[in-house]
């Protein structure tokens, strides 16, 4: 049925007698009921598919994406069925064509939607990340929350929710900091010259192994000398954390590690010199240091 035929049918129903108007209202109510049925049906099937996929695979991101895609297909089928029942399939197409926006929608809107949808399918099956991973995409860092049909939701460290189009993720370099579940951190501490360096380094390593959240075993903390500073020996302390064990945030583990190392060194009398700046004044013969 084309646009003119659909318009003539609607005009006849509206301008007709009471029986025709009653017929139109009944048709609209039935169409609304069918649409609501497909809405609830799509939600129910999505829930079932997602539950079963989660039992068969550990990738909740893939399960959620497939379930969402199935729901979308069911909704499109339901909308098409309702339009055919009301005899408005041709009317909708005619309105789009008559308004001159069909080419615009197909050329632009549908192009972006289709591109992001296909990119989402690639991301779901290629799986460069999963829910909870910490990633960096196009300069934006954060935790993956969800992969939708059009975009990927990321939670930044400062609490912002960023929605990146799937197509832009496919086209851009992606850094996954936690793909294997581990993340490395580090800090630098200065040891005063003249102390027992080997003893101090061993004390740092031993202290780090007792900090909650710092991994031991194969990924145990390591303290290595990096360079000789002006007034101290620079030691780099590296350690690993398990990103899937979120009992303590990474920033809290780092804070506790630094404080524990400083306290242990101070207790053993290891000098921790600060940076010395010598100030000379042309009006004074003496000199001071800060």
Automatic annotation (TrEMBL):
Record key words, sorted: Cell membrane, Membrane, Transmembrane, Transmembrane helix
Pfam families: MS_channel_2nd, MS_channel_3rd
Signal peptide: none
Transmembrane parts of this sequence: 23-41, 61-85, 91-110
Species assigned in the record: Cyclobacterium plantarum
SUPFAM superfamilies noted in UniProt: Mechanosensitive channel protein MscS (YggB), C-terminal domain, Mechanosensitive channel protein MscS (YggB), transmembrane region, Sm-like ribonucleoproteins
Name the record gives this protein: Mechanosensitive ion channel family protein
Membrane topology: Multi-pass membrane protein
The keyword Coiled coil is annotated on this UniProt entry: no
Family listed: Belongs to the MscS (TC 1.A.23) family.
């Amino acid at each position: 049925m084309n646009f003119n035929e659909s318009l003539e049918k609607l005009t006849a129903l509206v301008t007709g007698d009471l029986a025709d108007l009653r017929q139109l209202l009944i048709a609209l109510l039935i169409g609304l009921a069918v649409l609501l049925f497909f809405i609830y049906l799509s939600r129910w099937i999505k829930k079932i598919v997602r539950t079963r996929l989660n039992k068969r695979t550990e990738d909740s991101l893939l399960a959620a994406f497939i379930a969402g895609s199935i729901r979308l297909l069911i909704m499109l089928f339901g909308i098409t069925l309702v339009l055919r029942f009301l005899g408005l399939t041709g009317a909708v197409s005619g309105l789009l064509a008559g308004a001159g926006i069909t080419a615009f929608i197909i050329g632009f809107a549908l192009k972006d939607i289709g591109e992001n949808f296909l990119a989402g399918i690639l991301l779901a099956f290629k799986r460069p990340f999963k829910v909870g991973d910490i990633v960096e995409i196009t300069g934006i860092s954060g935790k993956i929350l969800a992969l939708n049909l059009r975009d990927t939701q990321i939670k930044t460290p400062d609490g912002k929710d960023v929605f990146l189009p799937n197509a832009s993720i496919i086209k851009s370099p992606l850094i996954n900091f936690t793909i294997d579940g581990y993340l490395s951190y580090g800090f630098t501490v200065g040891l005063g010259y003249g102390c027992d360096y080997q003893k101090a380094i061993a004390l740092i390593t031993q202290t780090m192994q007792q900090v909650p959240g710092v991994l031991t075993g194969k990924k145990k903390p390591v303290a290595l000398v990096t360079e000789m500073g002006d007034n101290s020996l620079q030691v780099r302390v590296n350690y690993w954390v398990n990103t899937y064990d979120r009992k303590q945030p990474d920033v809290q583990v780092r804070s506790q590690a630094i404080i524990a190392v400083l306290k242990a060194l101070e207790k053993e009398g290891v000098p921790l010199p600060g940076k010395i700046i010598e100030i000379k004044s042309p009006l004074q013969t003496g000199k001071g240091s800060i």
